[in-house]
Write a structure and sequence with these properties.
This protein has 343 residues and is α/β, with parallel strands linked by helices. Helix content is 29%, strand content 22%.
Length: 343
């Protein structure tokens, strides 16, 4: 795979803690994504690996067991979940002991009880807050109970509403399915209120991870620009977008400022490859032999290079540098060809 000078740094150089998202990075559904386990095991030989997930349906223990079954060495404390971030945030708003109306699965219930809260599923129990997270079996009745409990706006004395995350979609082994953001939006549509988000792209989940692992310099690996990469940027962490999950090359080209990754990877093997330098000269951006420039309203490919990933890197940088929104540019189809693995 390597076409680079061995003297160039890899994305892992100088990093003491690697923080990895799960869905779309390590696995899609129950099965591991190609090369993910081997690459993370190699990284773990010389640095700490932590796992951050917005998925609130499982406990840290069950996530660790799943990852171990795939061939990784993981204990529960290596896993930072959005329910844990939600409890960290909730303690500043409604301290325990208090009653929480939970919309979600075991992962959320266990963390609430560990934090000293009482749990209910009914608005009739006069909860002190609503906490909403993803679970595959969340039903209309669960969303309705949340809406009933949240009918009074917070500024008029209504109770707080915390969402573990706002991911619109979630990658599964059969494809892409609706995520927690979709379910939160359904409640929002009913009541006209906005939830406070604890997970990515908000900072609390990253603060929890950095504090737990004592990171001096970390790298966060994700598959989504709008949650993973944006969240890492807000937390001041370098990021790597891996094209094995939700976001595709066309999304990378259109990434807004603040959601642009430090590194763009085909798969996790490239964590261990020297990362190619980006060269700029006379308006031309070159990455490992792939050259692109933006002239007026046209994106021009001057050289395709040896690998599509380098063309994506060069094209994204050229478009980002131009300051021109991608939707007003004429972009050749070759630039966003997508031979990369996806669920």
């Amino acid at each position: 795979m390597a076409f680079f000078s061995k003297s160039r740094p890899t994305p892992l150089d100088g990093v003491d803690v690697v923080l990895a998202d799960l869905d779309g990075v390590v696995y899609a559904g129950p099965g591991a994504l190609p090369y993910a386990v081997e690459s993370l095991n190699t990284a773990a030989e010389t640095r700490r690996i932590g796992y951050i997930t917005n998925n609130a349906s499982r406990t840290d223990v069950s996530v660790a067991e799943h990852l171990t079954s795939l061939g990784l060495t993981v204990v529960a404390n290596d896993v930072v979940t959005s329910p844990q971030a939600a409890m960290r945030l909730l303690q500043t708003m409604v301290p325990a002991p208090a009653t929480l109306l939970i919309v979600g699965g075991e992962g959320l219930v266990v963390e609430a009880e560990k934090a000293g809260y009482s749990v209910t599923r009914s608005a009739e129990d006069a909860p002190d807050a609503v906490v909403q997270g993803f679970a595959p079996d969340v039903a209309w009745t669960d969303l309705a109970e949340a809406a009933f409990a949240l009918k009074l706006p917070e500024e008029e004395g209504g109770i707080p509403w915390i969402a573990t995350n706002s991911d619109w979609t979630i990658p599964r082994e059969r494809g892409v399915a609706p995520g927690n953001g979709t379910l939160v939006s359904a409640v929002h549509t009913a009541i006209g209120r906005l939830a406070t988000v604890a997970g990515k792209p908000e900072v609390p989940i990253f603060e929890e991870a950095l504090a737990r692992f004592g990171a001096a310099k970390s790298l966060f690996i994700g598959d989504r620009l709008d949650t993973d990469i944006l969240g890492a940027a807000r937390a001041g962490i370098d990021s790597a977008l891996v094209l094995t999950g939700i976001d595709r090359p066309k999304h990378v080209l259109a990434a807004p400022e603040g959601s642009r990754p430090t590194f763009i990877l085909s798969d996790l093997r490239e964590l261990h490859e020297p990362y190619p330098q980006t060269q700029r000269k006379d308006g031309v951006v070159t990455v490992n032999g792939a050259s692109v420039r933006v002239t007026g309203g046209d994106v021009e490919i001057l050289a395709e290079g040896k690998r599509q990933i380098d063309l994506v890197r060069a094209g994204a940088t050229a478009i980002w540098d131009s300051g021109t929104p991608v939707f007003v540019l004429r972009v050749p189809e070759k630039l966003y060809e997508d031979p990369f693995h996806r669920p």
